[in-house]
């Protein structure tokens, strides 16, 4: 059995439609009134959107029900599915902890509550019957104030038993007006020894070369090979890995056809830039990581040798894997012995 690493999965978008709908049935009568029949809900939840901003609005639907009390319910089912249906050995979950705190509280009270959220996610992610190495990436957010984002970075630095890095979310087109602020936050994170990734070069409006030096991995990054291939040599020198999430670009209207990703993979392989294939929002897409692999193969975007290289890159760039061999190598050694 091949085991995989998933480096880019959002907690808010990881809940598969059936589980979310059943939760609404039992605990959210106001929401279930909109979707009394499951097929209608699945169609609404998983359909493509016109823009990334429209797509991201769906996260608020899930964030509103992911609380201290309910997170163990959702995470147990997430881990179970990842182990049984996706063969994951390693999983990084990313989310904004502030958005899981009660919005009835003051900003300072919500900041204080974030540590509890991280602890709950960390404890709930460790399920003995489904052994997966898990860690969290805490997301600053383009629409949250500086004080909250800085507190998220401080929290990441103080909770390294559960947290392996930081990210910035909220749509890369919204960084421009606060670019210096976000660069300063990344500098601050690196000074604390916090590992970094970030949603960047996902859309044509999210191309900020000034941010690239502060990232160890690049969330999406597909516009680098598509529009700015001159940057690939620098990305390769910096040993930065692109976290490419194929289905996302069709769901957000960023690409018209999955075959457009062939340029992304070809140019990255030619330049020596690593790619980790990811799901991003497996629940919103109603897909799992092996489907992303199969889709790229059947559309002749990559071949099996390139797929293997991407799978190995995912373990190599995993923030909390610790430099260990990927599981397939360990099993091969046991068989040879």
TrEMBL record:
Query: What keywords sit in the KW lines?
Result: Hydrolase, Metal-binding, Zinc
- Swiss-Prot/TrEMBL cofactor(s): Zn(2+)
| GO MF entries | adenosine deaminase activity; metal ion binding
The record's annotation in CDD domains points to: ADA_AMPD
**Any one Gene Ontology cellular component term annotated for this protein:** cytosol
Listed under GO biological process in this entry are: adenosine catabolic process; hypoxanthine salvage; inosine biosynthetic process
Look up the EC number in the record and give it: 3.5.4.4
**Known InterPro entries for this protein?**
A_deaminase_dom, Ado/ade_deaminase, Metal_Hydrolase
The answer to whether UniProt assigns keyword Zinc to this entry is yes
Q: Does the keyword Nucleotide-binding apply?
A: no
| Domain called Adenosine deaminase: residue spans | 5-320
**Which Gene3D superfamilies does its entry note?**
Metal-dependent hydrolases
Output the SUPFAM superfamilies linked to this UniProt entry: Metallo-dependent hydrolases
For this protein, the record's Pfam families field holds: A_deaminase (PF00962)
Q: Which PANTHER family match?
A: ADENOSINE DEAMINASE (PTHR11409)
Similarity comment: family membership: Belongs to the metallo-dependent hydrolases superfamily. Adenosine and AMP deaminases family.
Q: By what name is this protein known?
A: adenosine deaminase
The species is: Aliterella atlantica CENA595
The taxonomy runs: Bacteria, Bacillati, Cyanobacteriota, Cyanophyceae, Chroococcidiopsidales
């Amino acid at each position: 059995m091949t085991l995989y690493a998933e480096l880019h999965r959002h907690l808010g978008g990881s809940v598969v439609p059936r589980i979310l709908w059943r939760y609404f049935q039992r605990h959210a009568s106001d929401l279930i009134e909109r979707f009394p029949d499951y097929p209608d809900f699945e169609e609404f939840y998983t359909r493509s959107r016109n823009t990334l901003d429209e797509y991201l609005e769906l996260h608020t639907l899930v964030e509103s029900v992911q609380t201290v009390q309910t997170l163990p319910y959702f995470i147990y089912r997430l881990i179970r599915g990842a182990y049984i249906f996706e063969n994951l050995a390693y999983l990084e979950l990313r989310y904004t902890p502030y958005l899981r705190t009660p919005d009835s509280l003051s900003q300072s009270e919500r900041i204080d509550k974030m540590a509890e959220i991280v602890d709950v996610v960390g404890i709930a992610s460790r399920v003995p019957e489904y052994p997966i190495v898990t860690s969290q990436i805490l997301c600053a957010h383009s629409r949250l104030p500086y004080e909250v984002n800085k507190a998220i970075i401080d929290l990441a630095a103080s909770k390294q038993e559960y947290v392996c890095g930081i990210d910035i979310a909220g749509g890369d087109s919204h960084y421009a007006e606060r670019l210096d602020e976000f660069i300063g936050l990344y500098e601050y994170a690196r000074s604390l020894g916090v590992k970094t990734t970030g949603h960047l070069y996902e859309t044509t409006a999210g191309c900020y070369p000034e941010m690239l030096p502060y990232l160890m991995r690049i969330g999406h990054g597909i516009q680098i090979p598509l529009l700015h291939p001159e940057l690939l040599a620098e990305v390769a020198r910096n040993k930065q890995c692109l976290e490419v999430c194929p289905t996302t670009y069709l769901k957000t209207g960023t690409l018209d056809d999955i075959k457009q990703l062939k340029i992304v993979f070809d140019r990255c392989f030619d330049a020596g830039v690593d790619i980790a294939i990811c799901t991003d929002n497996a629940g919103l897409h109603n897909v799992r990581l092996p489907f992303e692999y199969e889709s790229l193969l059947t559309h002749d975007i990559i071949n099996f040798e390139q797929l293997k290289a991407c799978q190995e890159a995912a373990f190599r760039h995993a923030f909390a894997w610790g430099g260990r061999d990927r599981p397939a190598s360990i099993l091969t050694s046991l068989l040879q012995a």
